[in-house]
Structure formats: C-alpha cells, structure tokens
Amino acid sequence: RKAKLFPPVPPLSFLHSFWSDGEQTPESRTFPSAAFCRPAMEINDGEEEEEFEFSRNYFLAKELGGSSKKSGRKISDIDPVDEQELRTAANNLEPKHEREVASLMESYKASYPEWGFMLRTGFGLLMYGFGSKKALIEDFASTSLTEYSVVVINGYVQSINLKQVMVAIAEVWWDQLKAKRRNSPSQAQQPFNSRSIDDLLAFMDGQEADDDKSFVCIIVNNIDGPGLREPESQHLLARIASCTHIRIIASIDHVNAPLLWDKKMVHTQFNWYWYHVPTFAPYVVEGVFFPLILAHSSTAQSAKTAAIVLQSLTPNAQSMPIESLYAASRERFLVSSQVTLNSHLTEFKDHELVRTRRNADGQDCVYIPLANDGLQKLLPEINP
Amino acid sequence: GSIETREVHSAVAFVSARREWLDGKQNERVEVEAQKTESGLVPTHLALGSCHRGGATSGFTVSEFTPAGKLLVPSGSSSKGLHLHCCCYMEPFTILHKASSRKTDKISTGTGKSRTTRRIDLTASLPASTDISDVNAAESNERHYSNMRMEAFEAVWSSTESSIKDVLREANATIFSEIHEWVRDSFDTIVSFGVPNFHEATQPFPVVKDATSKQIFTGLVLTRNIEFVDDLVTFEDLKQHLKSQGCHVANLSSVDFSSKNGVGTCLRSLLGQFVTGSLDTADISMLATWYKEQQNNDNPVVIIIDDMERCCASILSEFIHMLSEWVLKVPAILIMGVATTVDAPRNVLPSNALHRLHARKFTFQSLPEKMNYVVETAFVKQSSEFTISHKTAVFMRNYFVHQNGSVTSFIRALKIACAQHFSTQPLCFILHWFLRDEDNEVPQSHIYGLSQERMLKLAFDLPSWKSTNNQITQLSGETLLDGLTQLKKLHKTWRMVVLCLYEAIKGENVQLLDLMCEALDPKGPFASQFDIGSRVLPSDDSTSQKFHSLEKNKGLINRAIRRVKELPANQLLVLMKAWEKHTVDVPEFHSEVKALVLSLLKLEENGESLNQNKVEMTNTRKQALRGHLNGADKNLRVANEKASNLVDLMVRRYMCPVECVALHEVLCFDCVDQLQAALIGDMRRRIQMDLQDFHAIIRCSCCSKRGSTILPSMPDSSIMYTLAQEHGDVVNVHDWYQSFKSVVLSTHMVSKRGKSRSKQHSPTPKKRKTTSELSQPSEASIQYPCPCSLLVVFSLFCRLSLLFINDGAVELKWKTLKT
User: Fold this and answer.
1) Which of A85, A236, B462, B755 lies 20 to 30 angstroms, CA to CA, from B377?
2) Any stretches that span the bilayer, and where are they (chain B) (predicted)?
C-alpha cells in the first residue's frame, strides 16, 4: 500500500537539470519538478507557457536519461566505516549556519498571532518547507496556545496506536471540561479506553462544552510519517480533526504527502491552511529510524546476521546449496522428504536468507538475496 | 524549565560515550544533566533510556531518569565522559501541556463600553522598560483585543456563511420535498405488503412473503456536482430535512462499503447511528429489534449512501440483499447518490441485486446554478459588506473553473480570504460596525485595541483615501464617518447594478461570477469615469458614445444592455418587475422603472384585448387591426429602448467598482498571493525551491557570493540536491558522494575533478564553476573535523532522502548496486 501511495517514481529523476549541448549555466537551468505539479493558477498566459517549458524539459531529460550509460561504481569503493563510528562523528559535526537558522526560527515568532488566529477560526494548519518543523511547532504551541491543551503525535515513529491517542485526547478534553465547570458533578463516566472509536469521536464532537470556542489542539509531527501512512490512519485522523473541539497542526515533509488525502479530507475534515515555513533545522529525530547509508552496514551487516542464523541451524541445513531442488538434496542425503525441504526453506525465508521468484516458465525458484561480496565474506565465516 | 509542562511517559535516549569510560559501567546508574541538544530539544522527564556502548547497542539501560531530567549514576563517577547526543521523543504521542487556568481570568468579552483598558497602539512596540505586571497586562489586553477581532470575524463570516447555506438549502427545497413525498409513498407501499404480527416481529429472522415484497425502494439522486465534497453537503441537508419530517435517517459513505472489512462495517455504522450504547456485534436483527421498540412505527428508515459508484460492488449488493430480506421488519428505503448517469447501478451491481431495487430518479440542480446562488448571496445580496478585489475575484474564478470545481472549496476560499482580511487589516472591525448598522456613530475602535486617533490616522493613510481626498485637511471622526457612509452607499449601488444586469442575462447561461469579475474591474471600460476622486459624474454623452462603439461586442455587461433592447414584451415586463424590486434604494431609477412597468402592463392589456378581438375578427376589420398591432410593436420598441438606456445610465453612473472608492481597503480583500499560498500548498516545487534558493531564506553572509557556484559553506542538503540535479535519471550513490566530497573539500579536489568526471558516466559533463579561490583552506577541515564526517553528512542526507524526498530513488540505485 505504501508503494501505491508513494510510487517509486524517483523525483530525483527530474531533479537533475537539463542540458542541451553540455553548455548550461545554472541561471538557465529550469526546474523540472513543476511538470508534475500543476501551477497553482493561471492568471496570465505566461505561466502556461512556463508549464509547457517544464513538460518539454521533462521529456527531454527522459530521453537523455534513458540513453546514458550507468556508472558502475559501488559504494564499497568509498570504503565505508563502521556505523558506530559514523554515529560518533555525526555527534561532533558542526552544524552549518546555526546562527542564521536560529534567527530564521525567531523570525517566525512574528507569525504566531496569525497562526493562532487561523487555528481559532477553524482551520487546520499544515506546515511544510525544508527543515525539521517539530521544534518550531512545539514552540508555537507552548507560547501561543497555553489556554488550550496540546497533544503531540509523532508521525515519524514507526507504529502508532491511534486509539490510544484518541483516549488520551478524550481524557485531556474531559479534564478541560471538568476544570471549567467545577460545580457540576461529573457524571458517571465509562472509562475512555473501553469506549469505541465512534463513541470517542462523538464525545470530542459533542455539544457538552459550555462555550464552543475551547478546544484541544493536536500537533502531528510528520503526518506523512511511516507510522501514519496507512489510509485507515489518515481517515481516522481526518475524522478526529473534523471534531468540533479539536484543532490540528501538522507538518509534512514528503513531496507526495498531499496524495494521502482526498478532497473530502482536505476541504471538509482537515480544512488545511498551508504555511510554507522552511526552517533548515536538522531532521535529527525524524530520521533516526532510517539507516545511515554509507555505514559499513549493508553487506557486512547482512553477512554478519546471515552467519549467525546459519550457524544456529542444524549442520544439514547449513550446507544447503543455493539452487537446491529436492532431487539434488536427496541425492546428497540432505533431506529425505519434500516436507523437510520445505520446512528448511520456510525457515530461510523467514530469516530473509532465501527468497523466491518466478522464472519465465512459471516455476518457483529460490535464490539468496546477498551480493557476491557478501557471500564471499560469508562463506569463510561458516566454513572456517 | 519545560519539565512541568511536558509529560513523557517513556523515551529512549541515545547516549554515546567514550568507550573506555563506559567499560565496566554496565548496569550502573549514570547521571546526566539535561542539556540543550543540537536540535534544540530539551530532554525532560525521561523514564527509560538505552545506551550505545562500544559498537553495538548493548542494552545499557538507564532505567532511572529523575523527573528533573537527570539520569542517575552512582556517586563518585564522573559524568564528563558521557555525552547526551540526542534525546528523542520516541513516544508515539505526548501531552505537551494542559489548558492553563489563565483562561478563567481572561478579560470578559463584552462590548466593553466603560472598561478602562490601557489603549495599546497595535503597531507601536511595547516600551522596553515595563515591569512584569505591565507586560502581563499588555499580554492580557492583547489577548482580549484578539478575542474581539475574533468575535468581529465570526459575526461577519457567520452572517455570510449562514446566508449561503440557507440559499443552497432553498435551492434544493423543491427536490427535497419531492423526495420526501416519494419516501412516504414507498413506505405506504411497504406497509401494504403486510405488517409482521407480534409473533413474527419478535423472531430473530426475517419475514418472507412473495418476491415483490422483497423490493427495496431506491432513489437514485443525480447530484450533478463535479466534486463529491459538494454532494456531502447536499446529503447532509437532505438528512436534516427528512429527519425533520419524522423519518429515521442514516448516512453511509463509500468508506463503509470497502471490500476490506466486509458488510459488517456498514452494518455497524448503520446501527451506530440508530442504536445507542456500545455494539459488540453488528447484526441486522438488532436493527429490527430497535425498529420494533420505536414509539411509533409509522416512519420509514431512510438510508443515504453518498456515492454509490465508489462503493465496493459486492459489499453493496450483499447489503441490498440483506435489507431486502428484512424489508418487512425494517422498512428501509435507499437513497443513493450517483455522480455520472442513472445507468451507474447497472454497471456496478450484479443483476440479482438490481432485481431487488425499485428505482426512481431524482435530479438536483446543476453546479453552475448552485454557484450562481452562492455568488449572488456572498457578493451581491449579502448582509455583510465584506468583498474581494478584482484580482482576487479572478483568482477565485480560475480556482473554481480550472482547479477545483466544488462549491464547498469556493466557500472555503472565501472564508480564508475573510480570515486573512481580519488578521491583516487593522481596520477590519469596521466591517462589524457595518454589520451592526450603527451608521450614525464613529466606530468604537478602542474595543479592538486601537485609539481613535490611531484609527483615523490609519484610515486617512490608506492609499485610496490619500489619492482621492488629499484636499481635505480637517481629518475628524465625522470625515471618516462620511467616507464610510459614502463607501457603503456606493458599494450598495454597485451591487444593485450588477443584480439588474444579471437579471437581464440570466436566461443566457451566464455565470454571475464572470459578470462580477467584469464589473469589479477597476480598469474596465465602464470604470474609467470612476477614476478615483471623480466618482458619480454626470454622464458625458460624447465619451460614452465613444467607448460604446469601441467595446460594442465585448463583455457581458454590453451583452446585457443589448439584450434588454431586444427582449419581447412579456420577458421585458418580468425583467422590469425584478428591477423594480432591486432599485428601491435609488429613487431616481425606481420611478423610471415603475413608469416602464406601467406602460408595459398597459401594452400587455392591449395585447390581450387584441388577442380576444382576434377571435371575433372579421375580414373588414383586419386592416385596422394590423395597424393597431404595428402601433403595439412600436410601443414595445420604445419601451425596450427606454429600458436599455436606463440600464446604460445605471452602469455608467452607479456601477463604481469597489476598488475605485476611497477607504475600500476596509472592506475589500486584496492579498491574492497570500490567499493562494494558504489555499494551494505547492509542496514539491516549494521544497525544491527551498533547497535551490536557500540563500533567500537563510540570508547568510557566507554564501552571498554564490551566484552560479556551489560553495562548501552551503547547507549540505543544498549541495547534495544541486549535485543530484546534475546527474542523470538515477544518481549513482558513489559518484554522488565523490562530487559531494569534491565540493566540500574543493580546494584540493579541483585538480582531480576533470579526471574523475571523465570516468563517471554521469550524463552531464557539466561545467560547474567550482570555487578554486576558496580563501581559507582550513574552512572545510573545520566543518568536517575528520574524514569520516563526510560520510556522516552524506549518510544523513541519504537518510533524509529516504525520509522525505523519496523512498524510492536511492533505494532503487541501492538495489542495482547490490545486485
């Protein structure tokens, strides 16, 4: 599903510039991405022309890109280092433009009243632009939204249980309600975590509040993050956002993030008000789950884990050859029945040592998804 | 300091430490002061941490973080070797803070007649040396004023919004009542098939009679919208209407009919709307039980499915089957929205489900008609004076026609415009004053935190005022009052003329929005005489002749004037009667229109008597009659001519575009760019622009000489991005890294460059002017203290691209590299 929403059409493919004869200055470099995003409006015809230029460039680039030969160099040529070493170095890295970034963040403070105003008029704020916006949004909430409760959802975390989040929001809202009318006895409440999602939504949407103006504000850092990319999560978030007593502030970073929503969600539920707030702040927290690509990891790491798994297997399973078909295995008295072979294969598959694919004749073939150098490293380790 | 406000139930702290320091410290307690980290995050209440130790994550778990944000270590051990690198809020969610109690002591929001609040100049900054209480007072005042503005906005917007909603509902009123009638008839038919007796009714299975009794009455509603967002509004209105008539109504959306969850989801959703209390299982017999328990069983159950074509066909047909089995116990009537044609069910549903449906078609009004209602209410007839400039109107028109095509979004755009007007225009509260109709007293600006002097200054500094009234020296409240009254009057007459013009060409499939755009144009052919400063001039016939001949065939306004000239008598009479209503406030025109109506009425009477005469006409009288008819024709032509002249005069004398009026900034929203930015986020382009033109945002001094070169001082991501642009379709990570390296260490890489470039098969042997004149060679080494930092930077960027630029691009190449 993820693949569907975020199709692997690499934007990098149109990130590159367009050169007609190898001579090009960056001034004349056009910005191909707009071939994919319709210009916002066409007050004049100039933009249409511009758009045409963009699409022309895109196809031009496609042609060139297809004909170019691929570079055969590998990352291992760079001589990557150990992951830990990388992490340590990352800690000591001097951030660039620290002062400018700080003053940029500071400059957004002037917009806080406006953001607050828009939030109160019922819009959901959608922050985008390069740089981590987590600190900015939370600072805004801490300074300007003190009279409302604020719940932060971190979309960059791998898995989020939205039901739990809703329970927390409902509790906060309940506290807020209680605080306002202290005299009225709190009616016997079913604990929130045993209520259904619809009940919780109805509670947050309900007319129980004395004045309709108070609300709970939800901040969703990276609403397009891996933990929230499922359509179900987005639908649920949209339903939460459309409740009377909920306001939402979210940040997005993925260029395709708007594809997560249909028009109903955008216009009636989230009710987005877009703000372009580039911060150029490092994505420290947001990126923590993603691997450091130049760490000495991929092949070495998989070889290491492969070795561990293989060593823990029975000797027969260890010496299973790559394209072992049942017959071959049987010849060598490795397995005595198809069932045993299958159980071995299942084990391998579970540990990603072996994968299957279908060949041209429709037969299932097993293969080892390791690079050659990985295999070379692996073999001496298991057969010393 | 933020410890009190944040509650983190648990968090993971990545702590790196010198290896030798950590040796042997496993399972010991470590104390670390909370400190500000690079990312600006302040680690607070932590409960759980883990430590990277040595090479691998050894599970060095720091289990005790005190509420004060400290990790505990045994006394005696130094914390110097430990560096808290990053405290990540790895919690899926946290509560940042709870509503503060300050809200309770907020200043009460009344009209604030006699309150003695300190008047704060909005634009003037606070004096630097105010003590804390002053600052607090200022803060609370500020909050109060913003509340007042908020109130003003709500008053203005809700008056517009409610009238739009009303007009849309009215537009649908006939079709709604038609649907209701049909629902009633269908219900009677169902009941006529037989009502289950007590025994049958209490059994948990359906009552089965013959096949005809299994049919479900189904209304297929052609919504004729482009976007189903608009349908939702219509169906919600329909639901309310049917509910008010006593029906039990439930709304189901296409999401409920997804193949993933089966028919259970829509049943649960259906039950949820009728049965209170929690539902463990969803079963249609529960619905039957519920229906039986209703006080009066003489109301049908209406189920509205908003977009039938988006539903999963198998689930929908299963649902239909189930309903049809139970229809005698639960008299359900379906209403399904259809976006395309009435054939849609035939394309979507299997035949056995189709057989169960007894369908009837209903058609709602078309989108352009709805749009005309909305525009008419929002801009031409509305009670609030808020309006938009010509540019904004054109933008909103294009947004509707080319991009969005939904009335809901159009209204949303209008709301954004209105909200922006209130958040940017300091004099916006005058709109509220207009709304309250307090024409005889000067707006009370102090309620909104603006002294009267300040308000006058702001008003008389408006460009429109300056350019028109620079000769007026005495600037008092009365002058402002006069100006505002004049503004209101002119705006009103403008609306009157637009309405009259619209009435004239209503039948010709014309969009009011187009007409409005034309009429708003301050540079349009009809606006030339309303040059700021010389409004309401006596018409000069020679000039008007001139531009009429020039613009004869252009524009909707001219078309309207022409059409009035050619209208047949009966239509002209209808039009004149409509004008009679609209022109009440302008006596000059009103009397003329009245006279025209009278003459037309006379003409009609004559015509009728002629027609009657026609029947008993004899040959000898024919001649005389023809002469009479010619006379009637002549009279009509005279009437046409009169009406046409009248509308011409109206346009020239009273159709003053709002932007030509002094003080129009008060009620007219003009920041079209701002509106566009808020409405349409241009995610992809803007992110790429950020990276490319980072200097415009960051404004650093070091990269100012950038021009066409890539400087090592640029943000790493920008360098990487620019380099990626220069590569081909897919970036080879190795080459990419090398180019990156050569940029950041550009001094000693320059010579190697050519060589490495020729080897790389990057399709772009681009001429990039790498800075060879980098003044301090040590700069790079300062930025990147060890060679491996480069790898880090690069890795971090790749991580970024995995995170948000795209998860496909790098991965793809990565795979090709591996295999």
Assistant:
1) B462
2) none
Q: What is the dihedral of CA B709, B711, B716, B720, to 10 degrees?
A: 30
Cβ contact, residue pair A126, B681, below 8 Å: yes
A345-356 burial: b if 16+ Cβ within 10 Å, else e: beebeeeebbee
Please tell me the pTM assigned to this model: 0.74
DSSP letters, A92-107, are HPPPTTHHHHHHHHHH
| Residue linked to tokens 């078909």 | A325
SS (H, E, C) B289-314: HHHHHCCCCCCCEEEEECCHHHCCHH
Question: In chain A, what residues touch B817 (CB-CB under 8 Å)?
Answer: 74-75
3-class secondary-structure state, position A183: coil
Calculate the average pLDDT of chain B.
Answer: 72
Look up residue B643 and give its amino acid: A
ipTM over 0.85 threshold? no
Q: What radius of gyration, in Å, describes the C-alpha atoms of chain B?
A: 37
Task: Report the distance separating Cα B388 and Cα B589, nearest Å.
Answer: 27
Nearest 5°: the CA angle B773, B774, B776 is: 130
pLDDT of residue A247: 94
**Euclidean distance between CA atoms B431 and B419, whole angstroms:** 12
Going by C-beta distance under 8 Å and a sequence separation of 6 or more, which residues neighbour residue B602?
none
Chain A residues close to B98, C-beta within 8 Å: 149, 172, 175-176
**What pLDDT was estimated at residue B410?**
93
Q: Which residues pair with B335 in a beta bridge?
A: B219, B304
Q: Out of A97, A135, A152, name the one closest to residue B39 (CB).
A: A135
Substitution target from A101, A149, A284, A355 for chain B, most B beta carbons within 10 A: A284
Nearest to B805 among A11, A95, A263 (CB): A11
Question: In the numeric block, which tokens belong to residue A248?
Answer: 């939402």
Is B348 in contact with B206 (CB distance < 8 Å)?
A: no
Chain-centre distance of CA B313, in angstroms? Answer: 32
For the stretch B691-737, pLDDT in tens is 888 888 888 877 765 566 778 888 888 888 888 877 766 777 788 88
Give the Cα separation of B414 and B425 in Å (integer): 16
Question: What's residue B704's pLDDT?
Answer: 66
Q: Which of A22-31, A137-146, A287-296, B164-173 has the lowest mean pLDDT?
A: A22-31
Q: Which amino acid is at B660?
A: C
Token representation of residue A51: 């758009």
Contact between B146 and A157 using a beta-carbon 8 Å cutoff: no
Q: Tell me the shortest Cα–Cα distance from A313 to chain B, in angstroms.
A: 24
Rounded CA separation A238/B812 (Å): 32
Q: Which of B92, B800, B811 sits opposite A227 (nearest CB)?
A: B92
For residue range A75-118, what is the model confidence (pLDDT) as tens digits?
667 766 777 777 777 777 777 888 889 999 999 999 999 999 99
CB B232 within 8 A of CB B256: no
- Cα–Cα distance for residue pair B535/B528, rounded to 1 Å: 10
Q: Which long-range contacts (CB under 8 A, 24 or more apart) does A99-103 make?
A: A100/A280, A100/B698, A100/B699, A100/B700, A101/A131, A101/A279, A101/A280, A101/A281, A101/B698
Q: In the structure encoding, which two tokens stand for residue B168, read together? A: 């849309």
Q: Is the pLDDT of residue B216 over 80?
A: yes
Residue B334 CA to residue B303 CA, distance in Å, equals: 5
Burial call A261-287: b when 16+ CB within 10 Å, e when fewer = bbbbbbbbbbbbbbbbbbbbbbbbbbb
For residue B777, the model assigns a pLDDT of: 33
What distance in Å separates the CA atoms of residue A263 and residue B229, rounded to the nearest whole number? 7
Q: Do B419 and A118 touch (CB under 8 A)?
A: yes
Nearest-by-CA chain A residue for B390 = A43
Cα B232 to the chain's mean position, in Å? 15
Can you give the pLDDT at residue B791? 61
DSSP B254: G
